Amino acid sequence: MHIEGILVPIITPFAEDGSVNVQALGQLVDHFIDAGVAGIVACGTTGEYYALTDAERDTVLQTVAQKAKGRVLAVAGINALSTPQSIQHAQRAQALGYDAVMLATPPYSLPEQAGIVRHFETVAAATPLPIILYDFPQRVGVQIAVETVLHLAKIPNIVAIKESSGNFNRALALIQANIPDFQIISGSDDMAADFLFWGVRSWISGGANVFPAEQVRMVKAATQGRWDDVRQLMAGMYPVIQAMESGDYNQKAKLGCRRHGIEAGTVRLPLAPLSEADAQAFMTMLDAYV
Which residues are catalytic? Predict the structure, then answer.
C-alpha cells in the first residue's frame, strides 16, 4: 500500500440532542473528497472515538465506509484499552470494507516496549488489513521507540506510522532510516512543512477538517518543488493551526467546519465546550484567514 496526500481524521458531528449527526457526517465526507483529500480516517482521536457507544461507533464507521469506499482511502481507527478490543474493531473494519486501520498503543496501561511489540504483532496476526501505527505519546503515556518501529516494520501488513510525537528529531531519524516498504506519515500539523521538505508526502491532519483544500494544495506544491507556495500556504494556516495545537483541538476542529457551511455541534464529556468568548476569538482568527 502506498499512501500519498491528505487523510482527514474526521470529526464526529453531534446534533443538538447529543446524538451522532449522520447527515452532517456524510456531508463532511463528501466535502472533503470534493476538496481533493486522499482518504478519510473514521473514529480517530479527532473523531472522539472514546466518547462513542459501541452502536454509535458502528454508525460512524458505516457512514464513512458507505461514503468513502471506492472514492478515497477508507481507514478505520481501532484504538482501544486492550489488544482484544482492537482486534474486534479491526475485524469489524474488515467486514465493512475498510482499506486499512490505524492503531496506537493502548492508553492508560503504560506497557513496556515488549508489551507494545506484542500488542501490534497480535493485532497484525489477527487481520489482513494494512496497519498504520500511531505514535502519540502525549495521549497514551508511552512512546513507540524507534527500535520498536524498525522491528514492527518488518511485519508485512504494518505499512506506516503516523508520527505525532512532536519531536522532529525523532521523525527525522525515522525518515532517514529509509525503512523498506514502510512510510512515515506526518501527524503533527504544525510541523507538516518540515515533513514535506524531507520527502514525506502523506499527512494525517486533524487540521484538514478546517483546511482540506489548502492542505491538498500544500502537498501538491511540495511534490512539484514549489517551496515558496508551501511556505505561503503554511504561513496562512499557521495561526489557526497553532491555536488548535495549543489546546481544545477537537472543539476548534468542530468550529472550523463552519467554513464548509456545516454545524458539527459540540464535544462530549470528558471534553468541555469552549466558552463563548474563546469560541468567538477562534472564529475571529479563522475569519481573518486569507
Answer: 134, 162
